[in-house]
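Morning, I've got a small favour to ask if you have a moment. It would help a lot if you went through both lines with me. I owe you a coffee for this, so here goes:
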Amino acid sequence: MMDQIRAPASATLSAGGEDDRRGMLRDGIAQPGHRIVERLLSLIARRGGNAGNILRANGFDQPLDQFLVDTLPSLDMTTLQRLSSQASVAVSDLQARASGRLPFRGGDWRLLFYCLVGSRTLREAIVRMEELLTAIDGRMGSVSLKRSAGRASLIYTGARSGDEEMDFIVTLHGQLMFHAIFSWLIGKSLDGAVALDFPESARCYLDDELLPFDLALGAGQPEMTFAGTLLDQPVIRTMSDCEALPTLNFLFGLRAGQDPLEIVRRSRHYLALTLRERQKLPSLEELSRHLAIGPMTLRRRLHKAGTSFRLIRDELRHELAIDMLTTTSMSIEEIAERLDLCDSDALRRAFRGWTGMAPTEFRRSLVQRSTDG
């Protein structure tokens, strides 16, 4: 299984410059997964790669044009995942040859996952990843982590070939891959934003409605930003979880309405919004009505994503408690009320379970660190 963890998660990518017939074909392929595979395979063919080898490796012995018209629209999701992963690798290898960098290797991905799941927090995972990317000679680019004004920034650099479309796709793959893996590690979406150093005209290479982050172009350097509080979130995944992960493909990181990770993201968003507006958390039944999903189905989807309604609720309270203790002078009683807890004693018990210390002790430690600094 771990040998399969090679392909970066792919975004919905267009095949800029296609003729009218290909445009009509894209209009006829309604599902994002089918469109992504079509566009990646078409790009490989246009850049001199061998898309036919990918087809034959998956049991499709027919010309690419015939496959795209006759076969692709009827493929199931499992086959699409496999094709998208292999096509992503092929695009990355083409870009590697054109830019003069070494291609990715299966062992690189295995090492990356060992580093990440062996970490205690997201911050430690990112630091370990920085060190690993340096050790493997930049085959996967390099990253650096910075934090300012409550936001974390992950700055990414990688080789460029001068082929704007291919460079854009590989760079976006990298950003989407990091976002997807880090979200998976801590069991919640980073959300946030990504800025890329490509011109605004590069939007013609993708359909961005499924990206799990806001995308801005025209930046000085590729950069991903997200809430700094997430850096202290514990890593909840293990190597056993890696073994169960089917592969890194376009469904791993993209928004899909019924995907379990997307259900988690939408659940967290609704709980946070309700708590902020009403100072009251919704029940599971209210959340299920909002998501238009039956309560039992919602429980199963959350369980499949490695969490539960109770865990999401408690994680949200934990994050907000840390934020209010850090950035406000609210009393423990006021914070407990804001978090929809029955009283301050409930907050103290919960906070000690989260951090091993009482809220007032945590606040004093912040003051002490500020004084020492």
User: Anything to note?
Assistant: DSSP finds 17 helices and five strands in the chain. The chain has a mean pLDDT of 79. The longest strand covers residues 142-148. Strands lie at 142-148, 151-157, 193-196, 214-217, 223-227.
